[in-house]
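Tokenised fold entry reproduced for everyone:
>
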Amino acid sequence: MNLKYIMDLGFTYIAYPFLINDGKNIKFAKLRNDGEVKDIHGKGGKVNGRKLNEGYWVYCFVEFNSLSQEWEVIYIGKAEGEKGMEGRFSSYISGDPKHNKRNGPQNRDMYQRMLEWIPQGRQIRVYAFPIPQTYTTKNYFGLEKTFPVQDAKWYEYSLLEMYEKINGKLPLLNTQSNYDQ
């Protein structure tokens, strides 16, 4: 599964990781049209009318493969927090063990890989797809309540299944345990 494939599905380029503090920390930013690099945190960028700091998303990390001369998907994930993709990036940034010793292993692993890979010249980009908002109505004790259905997990699983069907394995940074949850 390559970049063209996920773009055909509706994914949009939103950011890339870069090093700060003499290569000791990472941030995520997007290159603006004028060529200036801007940290996406708090910028409220939009994809298909949805701000990066709201809603649920499915996203892919892609890496340029110099042998195949293609951008290849290396990770598929979901953002289910109330802060959308900005919240997801904040989770990765807090993967630095000195900031949050209780942070999950996925965040620590991604943080460490970016710290190692970026100085090696590996080119990483992040593409995302906002999960369409759907609603359901249920009856609770005689009162009807309507609330959003957040099904990012099923978008993520479907994309992982498609990837595995095409490539015969999961993306480089996904593990079977992520997929089987």
In short: The helical segments are 3-8, 84-93, 105-117, 152-167, 176-180. The CA atoms of residues 30 and 128 lie 13 Å apart.
